[in-house]
Amino acid sequence: MSGQAGGKETRQRTALEEYEQSGDGRPPFILTYTEVKLLGIAGVGFFLDAYDLFIINPVSTMLQYRLYPNGTMPANLQGLLKASANIGSVIGQFLFGYCADAFGRKAIYGKELMLIILATILCISTPTGTLSPNGSLIYLTMFRILLGVGVGGDYPMSASVTSDRATIRKRGTMLAYIFANQGWGSFVGALMTIIVLACYKHVMNDEGETSKVDGVWRIVVGLSLIPAFGTLYQRLTLPESTRFKKSQEAELIEQGDLKKEKMGVEVGVHTAESESSVDEGPSVHAAKKTHFLEVIKYFSEWRHLKILIGTCSCWFLLDVAFYGINLNTNVVLAEIGFAGKTGTPWEKLFKVATGNIIITALGFVPGYYVTVLTIEKLGRKTIQLMGFLMEALFLGILAGKFYTLSTVAFIVNFTLLQFFFNFGANATTYCYPAEVFPTRYRAFAHGMSAACGKTGAIISALVFNSLTDSIGTPAVLWIFVGCSILGAAFTFLLPEVAGRDPDAILAQEQREQQ
């Protein structure tokens, strides 16, 4: 029996190796049509995540003009509104991550996008004309939490779906390409805000009807439905992973029923044959029922747990600094002359939107694509260590010279900070859990890691302003420096994953235990 199992595994590994080595002549960042199509399907979630992250700041200001024209928006409700999507994300990341492993990718993929679409429609239907100002904010906050559940669910879903399909030699590049949509989401969010505001200039600025801003924020939020609807059908009908099918077709067709292979649960969910099989149902049901116990058993071993601690803590520490900076860009906008403190309400909104598109274009987008080009050469661990240390350096310069830096020096320093966020830990903390864990635990581990990251983002969003008021901006920046250094330290818990096959490593560990 052991000889048959060994021979079967050898044939499977040979098939996988042949598939992995296909296309070796091309650089990893040169993609096939199929890979580009996959990027389009999986990248929408990150585009929408960043789009929503950007627009909530101008939308909050617009709601201020619409709901509180003669006063100020309550600070607690404003903070909750801005943090609501991140709160929902934590729920979605845990929920969809576990379900994707327990029930299969195809059974779950697309449901998170349906949630995003439903929540977006409910958000733009906020009855500001009939509810009280505070009631309108509470209504919007509730459905932004639902929106966050969908956005959060996309993190483990798209990461696992892509990692399952990517060849090992291009896996990191594919994940980095998908994550780069975060930069484009921010950029397009700023651009759409500018365009819609420009369309409303006459009625808002020339005729003085500031209340018409109610239409601006609904259009800006509603535009995110276009890419969501555009990829919903493809997500709902996405078949099982190409990598699995290639290995099945090449060497395992003679094996017949593959339900007992490493990827047996996925086969049980995705193949028509398994659905019609009489004895498949009970085994798949049992696999789903015991999946949680398998997860506990796997992560009860220190060699696996320390990697999970590494991915969770690095993502948490990164997001404390990253979201602390990017959810509070008012200081940067003031330095580059786009704070929007003077003029009519329309002029203020337009100036801030223009300043934000400048910030995004300077360092945000370029950093992602340097990661795409270098991730397979430099490795994830090197990029993450370098990113954390460079973040600490530039945050330290900002903290130490906050009141004495010239405008040009401030802009250059901030641009480099944004560049090394994205050519650094912001990209690799997403890639790591999708690459380092075996297929059967990948989505859950990625969801848990991402949830820890969003927890850091929530803490930063809720605490930044009050901390700044009590201890000053430089002191808060020094806290971010400490987070970056700690992130570099926790990176040493992680192995380099370039060329690493976690499923083969799991199989080897299981043989050693027998």
Q: What's the rounded overall pLDDT mean?
A: 82
Largest sheet: none
Beta-strand residue fraction: under 5%
Classification by helices and strands: mainly alpha
Query: What is the chain-wise order of helices and strands?
Result: HHHHHHHHHHHHHHHHHHHHHHHH
Distance between the termini: 13 Å
Rg over alpha carbons = 24 Å
Shape: globular
Query: How many alpha or pi helices?
Result: 24
Fraction in helix: over 70%
> What are the low-pLDDT stretches, counting only 5+ consecutive residues below 50?
1-22, 246-284
DSSP, total strands: 0
Q: What does this entry look like structurally?
A:
The chain is built from 24 helices and no strands. It is an all-alpha fold. Helix 2 runs antiparallel to helix 3, helix 7 runs antiparallel to helix 18 and helix 8 runs antiparallel to helix 18. The longest helix is centred in the first third of the chain and has 35 residues. The two termini are 13 Å apart. The N terminus is likely disordered.
Topology:
Layout: H1 2-21, H2 33-67, H3 75-103, H4 105-108, H5 111-124, H6 133-165, H7 171-179, H8 181-199, H9 201-206, H10 213-222, H11 225-236, H12 242-252, H13 264-270, H14 272-276, H15 280-299, H16 302-326, H17 330-335, H18 345-378, H19 380-400, H20 407-422, H21 425-436, H22 439-471, H23 473-491, H24 502-513
Helix pairs in contact: 1-12, 2-3, 2-6, 2-7, 2-8, 2-10, 2-11, 2-18, 3-6, 3-15, 3-22, 5-6, 5-10, 5-11, 6-7, 6-21, 6-22, 7-18, 7-21, 8-10, 8-18, 16-21, 16-22, 16-23, 18-19, 18-20, 19-20, 19-21, 19-23, 21-22, 22-23
